[in-house]
Amino acid sequence: MFKLNAKVNKETFKLAMKECVKKAWVWDNKENFTSAVKWKKDRILEIDADANFEDENEFSESAESIDIFSAYLNIDSLDENEKEEFLKRWNSAWDSETGFDPELFAGETIEDGNAFGDKVREYFDMKNIIANDKRTNKKITVNLDEMKFFEAEQKTKELLKEDNCEYIYEAAFSYDNEKIRTRCDVLKIKENKHVEIIEAKATTKVKAEHFFDLMYQVFVLEKCGFIVDDICIAKINSDYVMNSDLIITAKTFGDQAKEFINQLGKIKYEEIEEFVKSDFEVEYDTDPIEVELDKLIALDYLTYGSNAKRPTLKDELKMFREKFDLDQIFVTLSNYLNIKSENGEIPEFMHNKKCTLNYNKDRAGNWDHGFNHDEYDNCYHVMNWFDKNEPGFWNIGKFKRALKSHVIRNSKSPYFKDYESLFEPSIVLNNKGESFFEKNRIAKRMFEVYDLKKQYPDDESKWRIIDFDNIEWIDSLLNIYKDFPIYMYDFETSKWAIPRFNLVNTYYQTPFQYSIDVIVDENYDYNKPETMHHYSFLSNEQDTDPRIKFIENFIKDSFKHGPGVYVAYNKSFEQGVLRKLAMMFPKYAKPLAYIIQNTVDLMDFFTSATKGTGRPAFLIYHPNFKGSYSIKKTQPSLDPSFSYNDLVINKGDKASETFRKFVDGRIPKAAWDLKVKEGMLKYCDRDTLAMVVILKKVKELVEAYNGKN
């Protein structure tokens, strides 16, 4: 007889199945989490708690890692309002009926999920109305979203007996004294206890965790005696551009924008000079903002992945169950979750070298038990404590976490300081008997600089911060900055799952703010603002498309001192934003295209070039980069006196979420004008000034090197 020793929440189940039961155990309840916090504080265990980036050093303007452990440990450093908001979200997350979901701790994710859930319900209401027009026995839809679980479960039973309901939203089911329980976003009712489950996800593609989500729901309903005919994900159709005839099915929005710019050809300044000097005004779009539900929502019955011939979710579940016993999986997981931390002792299974109770598909699409990281399946979710801030293997960029864990677990130390070379016998080899670092340019560069710092701690000139072996690349990049004016520019963007304005698709990066610092000659000094020119813009209107005034002001400010060199940090982001603006507002395409075509990337001093060009990574590398080329690491390392610490808003994701709250009416206009606007402007302005700092410091390093050689 099927019987569980401990409750198994849906979120805990998903974490265990996709990642590791050790991580699932930590997030299963507050008591376990509190124990894990203590082990981390006491330097006993290191627990992976951030967002699921394969390479956490991969720079992205919009992909801020959510390390909830760090946030929780540093809660006392927040001001009272931030602390109150954090604790409110924190406690609410633990009160969730399905278990704590770290991904949902991000405010924007919750907002998007709720908004999309509402649209999915509207969509099925519409389908029911259309179906009722064609049938004699009219059906109803019922939303149980406002009910607590017990009430919803009782109401679900009543509705299933009445036989007049087509769809139930948030239908509730439980089994084994509520040790397993679930709510279905959309449950389609059929005859004789046959049902279909539709799970709403504010995403553009089906993911592995969605499959396990549906697996859990099917399992609970079957235990309750129901027959699940089909399962699917109601997702967002990324091809849908609101109030536009643009069709982006064949190519992505970004690809079409690239093609649009390419078709314009090389833009000469003479073509746009008269226009950019004119007092033009960008007109607002007066078309009503109306979401077409049948275009926005897509029902996806196929499993996760990119294979065009991938099976349906239902067939995937069937294949999984042919190989594994779900009853036994639930019992095993329940047994793990039943283990308590007695007197602060760490449960024995937390020390397992490999991940426990996770399931994955191999490259052929066959189900297997355990991770498949090129045969290195050492667990990185829970490890013996080590200091991630200490230079070592964990900091190596573009090096998968499973490989980092393998090296750390099987070598004498996780830290560079304990080695004379990356090729010591005490560092584990790969499964071919070769060093992991023989062809790893980034690792070798990092170790070289760190080792020199260790030898000459007080003489920075000997650290090889400049890559002497590739000085011609550095000179080539610096030559770009010999022409003036130089426009250093940076954007802030916000995004919504449900398109918020016309001519956007889901999660469109909507620019609402920019900062430009203009260098007009060699005499610039970031400590003396009067030696440069500064321009900025921040949309201050609620419920209006910020792109209109953004385009107007950005074009004018970008040519105030004539055509020049345009500089971004991680230019692919800013160029992508500008391409889409050009395509959706073609009247302004040529001046935007000119800026795109003449933009260079300040990050080139740190990151490697695209394949085929040969430029190596970290032409400039400081030990304090710790393997990252994010501007939040590079700039403070080159000049520690210049920081973001004095700012109220000091991260891109915080700026994005703040503007979104303002547009959605959750920050009143009066509060915005009085308190928030100034902080937003200071943050974006600091980003472009940080770029000036980087350029100045790189030039000084090279000049010092040339002076000695």
Automatic annotation (TrEMBL):
<dbReference type="InterPro" id="IPR021301">
    <property type="entry name" value="DUF2779"/>
</dbReference>
<feature type="domain" description="DUF2779">
    <location>
        <begin position="487"/>
        <end position="630"/>
    </location>
</feature>
<dbReference type="Pfam" id="PF11074">
    <property type="entry name" value="DUF2779"/>
</dbReference>
<protein>
    <recommendedName>
        <fullName>DUF2779 domain-containing protein</fullName>
    </recommendedName>
</protein>
